[in-house]
Design goal:
By secondary structure, the protein is of the alpha+beta class. The chain contains eight helices and four strands; from the N terminus they run βαβαββαααααα. The model has no long low-confidence stretch (mean pLDDT 96).
């Protein structure tokens, strides 16, 4: 779905990021949810290098995305995805029991999976070569492998975590992308295939494509 400049929904994004972050900035999660729900949106890119003071009133930590919809102002991609999902059968089933399970998987992605994987990103990319990171990695990788095994068992032979795609899958597949710089997912072919299935969805392709199209290719000069 093309971005709608007249949409009442506006996502605050960044105007530029380094190459390793392109396609991974978390506004893509909100874009993806809106694509799955068939809801239009527009964007308001802000300076990566000099974020306006007004942005901190919307996002206390100066991150993105922030979300605007009339009087609604939100931050944190998981919360925004939930807000979008609540109006879409495509993301949250109407059946109470199925809906409850989808909500569980949303929080599992953000609480039981993603923190461990982001710690590995910190160890591998941002603290690479530091002694503490070298010492920490083996035990962290083993813990992640165990957690991935548990997730693979829960998935079983289903296409998605609860049989059909929900916002839980959206956030879980997003969390697993933190392993893209590793081969840890290769040890769990069921999960690797699951992630590929999720990321092949038109909504994801459109969301990341839109993010990449909007990001400047050259680092802007700091004002």
């Amino acid at each position: 779905m093309p971005i709608d400049p007249q949409s009442p929904i506006e996502i605050v994004t960044l105007d530029w990021v380094p190459d390793f972050a392109r396609g991974y900035v978390r506004d893509y999660r909100v874009r993806w949810a809106l694509e799955e729900a068939g809801i239009g949106y527009r964007t308001d890119p802000i300076s990566t290098l000099r974020r306006p003071a007004s942005h901190f009133a919307e996002q206390p930590f100066g991150q993105v995305p922030a979300y605007r919809e009339g009087p609604v102002r939100m931050f944190e991609s998981g919360a925004i995805v939930l807000h979008v999902a609540e109006r879409s059968e495509a993301l949250l089933p109407s059946d109470p029991a199925e809906r409850a399970r989808a909500l569980c998987w949303m929080f599992a992605a953000l609480n039981s999976i993603e923190p461990m994987l982001m710690e590995l990103t910190n160890v591998d990319l941002f603290a690479k070569g530091e002694e503490w990171a070298t010492l920490r990695r083996p035990s962290l990788a083993a813990a992640i492998d165990k957690r991935l095994g548990q997730l693979a068992t829960a998935l079983g032979d289903r296409d998605y975590l609860e049989g059909r795609f929900t916002a839980g899958d959206l956030l879980m597949a997003s969390a697993l992308r933190a392993l893209d710089h590793t081969d840890l997912l290769d040890a769990h072919p069921v999960l690797a295939a699951y992630q590929q299935r999720c990321l092949a969805r038109p909504g994801f392709v459109a969301a990341t494509g839109a993010q990449l199209a909007e990001l400047k290719t050259e680092m802007p000069e700091a004002a």
